[in-house]
Structure formats: structure tokens, C-alpha cells
Amino acid sequence: MRRHIPFLLSCLLAFTAGHMFNYTVILYLQEAVGSDLLSGLGFGLAFGSSIVFGWFGGVLCDRMAPGRVIHGAQALFLLGLACLWWADTGAAANQRAAWALLGAFAGGLAWSFVGPARLTALGQLASATELRPLTIIFNLQVLLGFGLAPLLIGLIRSAHAWPAVLATAALGFVLSSALLLRLHTHANPVPSSQSVWADIAEGFRTVGSAPLLRQLMLAAVIGYAMTGPLQILLPKLARQQLGLTETQRGAYLGLLAVSLIIGGVLALLLARRLHHGRTILGGVALGGLVFALLGAIASPLLSALALACVGMLGGMVISLVVAGIQTQAPEALRGRVMSMYAITSQVLPAVSGVAAGALVNQVGVVPAIAGAGLTLAGLAAVAALTMPVLRRYAGR
After folding, report:
1. What integer pLDDT is reported at residue 363 of this predicted model?
2. Neighbour count for residue 75 (Cβ, 10 Å)
3. Whether pTM exceeds 0.85
4. Distance CA 289, CA 395 (A)
5. Which residues make Cβ contacts (< 8 Å) with residue 3, sequence separation at least 6?
6. Which of 269, 272, 276, 389 could pair with 395 as two cysteines, CB 3.0-4.6 Å apart?
7. Would you state the torsion angle of the CA atoms of residues 393, 118, 262, 49, taken in this order, to the nearest 10 degrees?
8. Is residue 203's pLDDT more than 90?
9. What would the DSSP string read from start to end of 270-283?
10. CA distances (Å), 221 to each of 205, 216, 330, in order?
């Protein structure tokens, strides 16, 4: 396991910087531009581009060394940060939104390739016995980055302007790439002679013909549908409903990440004892119900406790889902299968984030949170009734 520390540390730096990028797009468009709708659209561009380009990312990871794909993707993040920097420091006031959205699109391209590439690289680096625990640890790096990002932004913004936030994120990407300079990954030893479209179709057929893999992927769809509302609605809840300061808001949003990490750690420690299918379905349903209650809680302490519950359940669910998909993915198609998971983890938050931005613009933050949580719980109930293979999946 120790030999994988540089790769995992690189993941932590990259995902922290990546989530700083996403939160910056959201908060900048909310605060500097003053538009919740554009904030949701910016988040949609930052994660939603992978619905077009992510499929090609999976094929690319099966055709060339995924380590090279990682470096290219992180260069795109730096381009997106440069656009955000120009939006804040050089663009005219009526052009700020356009430059911020252009930067969000560049970041969306980067997310399209970096997720599949890192998951494919992990599949090459880990042995068969290491793959499940390392995938859960990998997911912990994602969750830790998700949690550190708003905390770092809050701390930096309490004393500095947006350029300092952007510089910190850029440094994270540079250090992350430096840690991978000695990483040895390889292309598929049997290169494909098919077209890109045929390779993409083969990936779909592989997932569609394996009932457990298909239902795990659908569980990922349901679970990640909550991420967009969390990222769009929680900052507004913290500011309007709870009346928190800038630093307190950063800590409140950071609590979500801490609880996600705790949930991931619990999944790692209890993976051999938990029934994975029932934990996944039950965790999503309960998490949705608790999230629906957040808008009705006026006490910051009680709200934080409820948010921690949502986070722990989410961390357990996503960790078990991604570990299951990784262990079920065929080696020759790992890039394409994991790209489907990565696209799910990026597009569903983007789509639900755009919907949440539009909804909160129409009805306000409290009804929007209640509607999002109850919808998620309802989807989990439907999944429990219609996914018998996942319901019986013990995970052993």
C-alpha cells in the first residue's frame, strides 16, 4: 500500500484544487455577478461537459497510458483558472459572466478526462487484492478534496480576494502533476482496431449485459443526483437561513466533506461486514429524508448535525458503489466503464445543480431543499423495488 502514497496524494491535491475550481465558479457567479441562475449554469458547464467528452475520455484511457491523460486534463484546469482570473481582474463588468462561464467550460473538459484517467490508472497500479480497498481510499481523496475546498476558500476569502483562491488551486494542480512524473502506466496491450464510436458502444454493451454492473451504475446516478442541490443550495441556506459569516459558512460546508470522509472510512472499515446492496439503497433513502428536513431547521447546531448525517450516509454509499463498479469492470474496458461512472459523478451533479439553481430562483431555498430531498428518497424507494440484483448484492 505504501508504494501508492504518491499517487493518492496527487489525487488529494488534484481533487481539492478541482473542487475549489467548482466552488469558485458557483460563489463567484452568485456573489460577484449576482445571479443564482448563472451560478447553476456555471456549475453545469464545469461538470456537465463530460456528457459529451467523457465518452472519448474513456476510450482514450483504454488506448493510451492514462498517466499522460491526467497531465493533459490538469493543464486544462489551469486554463480554466486563467479565465476566472481574467474575469475578476481584467474583464469589463459586463463581460465577467462570459469569462467565468468560459473558464467553467474549460474545467468541464478537464473533468471529462481526469476522472476516467485516474480510475484507470488505479486499476493498473493496484493488485487484485488491493483494488477494492484502494478504490475506497481513492474515493476518500475525492471526498476529502470536496470538503477541504470550501474550507480553504472561506479561509482565503476572509483575508484575500479571488486571485489568491485561484492561485492556490493552480498550485495544487502543479504539485499534483509533479507527484506523477515517475508514474508508470500503459496503454491497452491489445490496441483497438475499431472506430471510437464502436469502442464507446462496446462499453455500453458490457455494462448493459452485466446486471450487477448495470444496477450499480444506476445507483451511482441516484446518489450523485443529490450532489448538485447540496453544492448550490447549502451556501444559500448558510447565508440566508442560518445567517453564518464567511468563515462560518466555509466551516459549515466543510462539515459536509468531513462527514463524507467519515462515511467513506466507515465503508472501508465495515466493508466485510455490511450488506452492500441494502446499505446503498437504505443510505440513499435515509439521506434524502434528512436532507429534506434541513430547510426547516433554524438552529445552526442542529442543522450541522443533520448535515453530518447526510454526509456520512452519502460517503458510505458512494464508496461502496465505486468499489463495486471498479471490481466488476473488465480490464480491457476499464477506461470506458469507469468513464461511465465518472460521467455520472460529474453530469448528474451538474444537471441537478442547474435544476436546483432554477428551482431556488423560483420558490426560495427552503422549498427547494425539501423538494430535492424528498425526490431523492422517492427514487431510492423505486430502485429498491426494481433492482433485485443490487438488493441481494452482499459485496463479498
Report:
1. 81
2. 13
3. no
4. 25
5. none
6. 276
7. -90
8. no
9. HTTTS-HHHHHHHH
10. 18, 9, 20
